[in-house]
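Q: what sequence does this backbone want?
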């Protein structure tokens, strides 16, 4: 039995929740018995849709006071062969294994690095610094730390340094694929406030500063006079500050927002976009890159962290500050004859990221740690 430890639902960490589901389905499909356990809201249930400081502290009670008791009981009842903590931010539970090998998936160490005073767009409060040091201690206690990129593994070697670090690339959490372009465009007609007869560039992500949505706005503004395109933001709704910036840049009328699209809608967007614009400042992996590439969508991304290793030869890269370069490459993709080769490169690169391969690598790690599965 593999016991998977997942994330606290009220934290609304959508990418981590998707990873939790991927791992549970993947292991059971591979014939391994697995169970997912995660902190549940008790105190936090009194603060539904409230993300203020009081709600945060009551969430801490659920995660760090109540859940360890439940976890220890589960360990006594199940006696699993391996414990797999699916998000490094839950590495604080690594000490509750009672002699059972513990694997932790490390998606990034940006918050830990921020708490140590490094610039990662993840500043930490006093209590945040304590929590991140606690997380770092948990990573050091783990029997194995599986990092989602070589860049993240390099951070782990430097900060965790337990000599038991490997790289296990993420697979896709949904079978994104290339669709007939005209069929995909027709599926968008009337569904979104989008003119399907005009090209658009796509950004997928949140309003976190490290996602650099302000940079995406400036890049698009630099190109606005040379094409009649649109800029689509999929994910969080733009903040008031970002909307104000769009107004200052004179592009607010050309922006379309798609709030928290499901996988099917994302697949259609990737298939119909001119390109994915991903000028992120800091990342641990960059899931939207391989999602887009699996649909044959070219990717313009920054050279930050793991993005070059993930996008591979199919990426069009620029330093974060080179917004003019991003804008020029965006316009370069407008002719079908120019976009087509980059689309083919994207499809080839995406083949490197297999969910089945990812699951197989985790099973190998479990067995290397002595798990009888």
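A:
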């Amino acid at each position: 039995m593999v016991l998977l430890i997942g994330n606290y639902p009220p934290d609304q960490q959508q990418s981590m929740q998707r990873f939790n589901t991927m791992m549970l389905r993947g292991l059971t499909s591979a014939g391994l018995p697995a169970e997912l356990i995660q902190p549940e809201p008790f105190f936090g249930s009194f603060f539904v849709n409230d993300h203020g400081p009081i709600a945060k502290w009551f969430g801490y009670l659920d995660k760090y006071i109540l859940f360890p008791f439940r976890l220890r009981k589960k360990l006594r009842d199940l006696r699993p062969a391996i414990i797999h903590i699916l998000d490094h931010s839950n590495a604080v539970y690594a000490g509750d294994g009672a002699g059972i090998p513990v694997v932790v998936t490390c998606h990034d160490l940006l918050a830990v690095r921020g708490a140590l005073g490094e610039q990662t767009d993840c500043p930490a409060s006093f209590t945040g610094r304590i929590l991140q040091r606690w997380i770092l201690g948990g990573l050091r206690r783990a029997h194995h730390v599986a990092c989602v990129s070589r860049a993240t593994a390099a951070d782990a070697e430097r900060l965790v340094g337990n000599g038991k670090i490997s790289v296990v690339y993420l697979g896709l959490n949904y079978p994104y694929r290339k669709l007939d372009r005209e069929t995909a465009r027709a599926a968008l007609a009337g569904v979104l406030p989008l003119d399907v007869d005009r090209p658009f560039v796509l950004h997928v992500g949140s309003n976190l500063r490290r996602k650099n949505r302000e940079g995406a706005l400036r890049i698009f503004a630099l190109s606005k006079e040379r094409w009649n395109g649109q800029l689509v933001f999929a994910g969080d709704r733009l903040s008031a500050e970002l909307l104000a910036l769009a107004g200052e840049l004179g592009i607010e009328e050309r922006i379309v927002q798609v709030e928290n699209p499901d996988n099917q809608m994302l697949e259609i967007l990737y298939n119909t976009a001119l390109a994915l614009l991903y000028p992120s400042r800091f990342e641990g992996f960059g899931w939207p890159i391989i999602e887009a590439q699996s649909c044959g969508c070219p990717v313009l991304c920054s050279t930050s962290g793991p993005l070059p290793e993930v996008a591979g030869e199919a990426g069009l890269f620029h330093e974060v500050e080179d917004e003019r370069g991003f804008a020029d490459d965006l316009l370069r993709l407008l002719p079908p004859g120019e976009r087509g080769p980059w689309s083919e490169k994207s499809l080839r690169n995406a083949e490197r990221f297999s969910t089945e391969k990812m699951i197989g690598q985790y099973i190998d790690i479990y067995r290397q740690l002595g798990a009888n599965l």
